[in-house]
């Protein structure tokens, strides 16, 4: 969607599609074209106008940055979104090689199937396997690792400690429901770890009395010691497994985990108070050392290198300099069923 929107604005710009009024007219035409698929035509036009304006802004920003820096290659941490796609669009036009260094573990949703760069510097061999099954050339993928995890954190096994609860940056109602399940299932005091994009004021409003709001990075707290980490399809689950922390996937809606690495038996799965209680009991009765060893081996397939080792590997990829060969994979080009 982002790439198509950008192409629409970019291709129309030479014909005078410069002002917000022009973009609003285009949005109105698009809204009318989809017909009965959207009930609220006014809301649709308003949304499409904002989307097209943002697309134009990102195209202009990408042009300015490339003209200013004239890079040999460009590193991107995302393959979706208007900012990344705007940069990719002009890198393609100027034949500037692009390198994908993922900002998060490999997710199961459709947008992560795209690799619109010239080379992918992935986190682990299991990520390479997933993309290989999708037809991506293995010769244009490298295993680099995750630079955000410090090597020292992996040198000891996570000791026992408080239960950590890490809600995603959802709406207040969704966070409140997640927190309510945790509060009923957990008997002791516990620590709530905000997501980097969490609304802290909102978290304080829904924070149970027995919970403490963390002020440090979730992974650092887990490495110091925790009984278990309760989260929902978060990248911190993979990081926690790397340091030997027991991980529980709490999915109140019963949906499948968003990341390939979050799978049973390496992660306990719960959907309500009763299943969360059972998962916490299971964590207590099973040997932490055996759980840590199995989970660490599994997580190591998704994140093979960390810290300075990962940084050195990425530095080598950058020094080698990828050739301009075009997108590794572009699923957006394939028509999808409604």
In short:
By secondary structure, this protein is α/β, with parallel strands linked by helices.
How would you describe this protein?
With 338 residues, the protein is of the alpha/beta class. 46% of the residues lie in helices and 10% in strands. The chain has 12 helices and 10 strands. It has helices at 2-12, 20-34, 41-69, 82-94, 125-133, 172-185, 200-206, 218-224, 236-242, 273-285, 288-302, 307-320, and strands at 74-76, 98-100, 119-122, 141-143, 163-166, 190-192, 211-213, 228-231, 247-250, 268-270. A 6-stranded parallel β-sheet has the order 7-6-5-8-9-10, with helices on both faces. It has a 4-stranded parallel β-sheet with strand order 1-2-3-4, sandwiched between helices. Strand 6, helix 7 and strand 7 (211-213) form a beta-alpha-beta unit. Helix 3 (41-69) crosses helix 4 (82-94). The two termini are 14 Å apart. The relative contact order is 0.13. The model has no long low-confidence stretch (mean pLDDT 88).
Secondary structure category = alpha/beta
Query: How many helical elements?
Result: 12
Low-confidence stretches: none
List how many beta strands DSSP finds. Answer: 10
Mean pLDDT: 88
Whole-angstrom Rg: 22 Å
Distance between the termini: 14 Å
Q: What is the helix content?
A: 40-55%
Overall form: globular
Report the β-strand fraction as a percent range. 5-15%
Q: Which strand order does the major sheet show?
A: 7-6-5-8-9-10
User: Biggest sheet, in brief?
Assistant: 6 strands, parallel
Q: What is the string of helix and strand elements?
A: HHHEHEEHEEHEHEHEHEEHHH
């Amino acid at each position: 969607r982002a790439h198509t929107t950008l192409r629409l604005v970019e291709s129309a710009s030479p014909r005078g599609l410069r002002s917000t009024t022009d973009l609003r007219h285009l949005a109105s035409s698009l809204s009318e074209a989809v017909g009965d698929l959207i009930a609220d035509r006014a809301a649709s036009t308003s949304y499409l106008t904002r989307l097209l304006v943002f697309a134009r802004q990102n195209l202009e920003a990408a042009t300015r940055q490339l003209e200013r820096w004239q890079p040999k290659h460009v590193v991107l941490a995302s393959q979706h979104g208007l900012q990344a796609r705007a940069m990719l669009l002009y890198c393609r036009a100027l034949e500037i090689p692009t390198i994908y260094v993922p900002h998060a573990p490999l997710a199961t949703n459709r947008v992560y199937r795209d690799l619109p760069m010239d080379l992918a510097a992935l986190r682990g061999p299991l990520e390479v396997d997933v993309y290989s099954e999708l037809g991506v050339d293995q010769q244009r993928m490298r295993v680099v690792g995750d630079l955000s995890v410090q090597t020292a954190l992996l040198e000891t096994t996570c000791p026992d400690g408080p239960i950590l609860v890490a809600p995603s940056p959802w709406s207040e109602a969704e966070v409140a429901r997640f927190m309510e399940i945790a509060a009923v299932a957990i008997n002791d005091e516990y620590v709530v770890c905000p997501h980097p994009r969490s609304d802290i004021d909102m978290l304080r409003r829904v924070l149970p009395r027995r919970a403490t709001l963390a002020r440090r990075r979730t992974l650092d707290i887990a490495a110091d010691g925790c009984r278990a980490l309760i989260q929902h399809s978060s990248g911190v689950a993979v990081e926690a497994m790397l340091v030997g922390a027991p991980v529980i996937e709490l999915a109140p809606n019963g949906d499948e985990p968003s990341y390939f690495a979050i799978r049973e038996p390496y992660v306990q799965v719960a959907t309500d108070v009763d299943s969360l209680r059972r998962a916490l009991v299971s964590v207590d009765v099973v040997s932490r050392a055996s759980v840590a060893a199995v989970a660490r081996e599994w997580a190591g397939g998704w994140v093979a290198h960390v810290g300075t080792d990962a940084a050195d590997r990425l530095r080598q990829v950058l020094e080698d300099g990828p050739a301009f060969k075009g997108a590794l994979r572009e699923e957006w080009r394939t028509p999808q069923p409604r």
